[in-house]
Design a protein that fits this description.
By secondary structure, the chain is of the alpha/beta class.
Length: about 350
């Protein structure tokens, strides 16, 4: 299927510079695009690639005079590119209906247009909203609620008493509502604390593959609306994550931590329990958060330092052996000078 460049520009609220009737049949990266395809340029430092690409059209923020390709000028080329990807590659939908191999419990409420794949289990009293898609092998526990237009990929486990909002995407292998890690030490042994709370995943959240979201001991573990969670992330019991935050792969958040809105936790960040991270905080990769972080901070390291300070410290680290030797040499010089001064004082005494 193909479209005129002007039609594509209309979709992304852009302005055409070049032939508006140019036919576009595909979308690709700027290095791989061919004639008949559109690409994008988001970072000005790669502007030279716009002069080398074979793409017929480029999404750009400003006109490039020397470019041979037609241009579509937009406010945000990267966002426009994501919009076009959905046009050229519409998301796959599972077939509507209930596979005969699925197991549906008693008093289950099914919305209209649902898709329930083979070997899905929906326990008693669960609610599946309109146009929800449950891939093969999904488990939905007793009394759980999956909001409309949510997409649950194969082999996801949603335990009992979990509430999933609207338009949520959950990737394969993820477990929502597993028991929180709570044990009471008594007379030399650890005794399990019953985890009787729930989990709330709010609207427009995406959970990657093999994410674990533990249920609360009491109350709820909450992942706020619009938050995006990468693969292999652990969210402990009673954690509350604010709206529109980003958790990158292998982040681990201990129980009862509070994460604000628009927070970014980069890969392998660890957050200790019962801490508060304020709104708009950025924590650099592999950092260990051991104390509260106020709103708006950008930190890295273990323990976390302001990011610029941490960069300076990292730049100094390789030079520590050399600095150590220089300090030793200076100490020897100082000692020699002291001895000389002492000898002079004795002579003058």
């Amino acid at each position: 299927m193909e479209w005129a460049l002007q039609e594509i520009a209309n979709w992304v609220h852009g302005t055409v510079s070049g032939d508006p009737h140019l036919r576009i049949r595909g979308i690709a990266s700027i290095e791989e695009a061919k004639e008949g395809e559109i690409t994008f340029l988001a970072n000005p430092k790669y502007a030279s690639k716009a002069l080398q690409t074979r793409a017929s059209a480029i999404l750009v923020r400003a006109k490039i005079e020397a470019a041979s390709s037609a241009l579509v000028i937009v406010d945000d080329p990267y966002f426009a590119f994501t919009q076009l990807l959905s046009r050229f590659h519409p998301p796959r939908r599972y077939p509507e209906g209930i596979d005969p191999r699925a197991a549906i419990g008693q008093a289950v409420i099914l919305g209209t247009g649902v898709s329930i794949g083979p070997f899905v289990t929906v326990e008693d009293g669960a609610k599946i909203g309109d146009r929800v898609q449950l891939g093969a092998g999904v488990f939905v526990g007793e009394g759980s609620d999956v909001g409309e237009e949510s997409l649950i990929y194969p082999n996801v486990t949603i335990r009992e008493g979990v509430k999933i909002g609207k338009r949520v995407i959950v990737h394969s292998g993820t477990v929502i509502g597993s028991d929180g890690f709570g044990f009471a030490p008594h007379r030399g042994k650890y005794h399990k604390i019953p985890q009787v709370g729930g989990v709330i995943i709010e609207d427009d959240v995406e959970l990657g593959a093999n994410v674990t979201v533990d249920r609360a001991t009491l109350g709820n573990t909450i992942v706020g609306a619009g938050t995006k969670v990468d693969n292999l992330v652990q969210i402990g019991h009673n954690v509350v994550i604010g709206d529109d935050s980003i958790l990158v792969a292998q982040v681990g958040i201990s129980g009862s931590a509070k994460i604000g809105r628009h927070v970014t936790l980069a890969g392998q960040v660890g957050v200790a329990g019962h801490l508060t991270i304020g709104d708009n905080v950025v924590v650099g990769g592999k950092s260990g958060v051991t104390k509260d972080i106020p709103a708006g901070e950008n930190v890295s390291g273990f323990p976390p330092l302001p990011h610029k300070t941490w960069l300076k410290a990292q730049a100094s680290f390789p030079h520590l052996p050399e600095l150590r030797e220089r300090i030793k040499a200076l100490e020897r010089e100082v000692q020699t000078l002291r001895q000389q001064m002492a000898q002079r004082d004795e002579r003058n005494g």
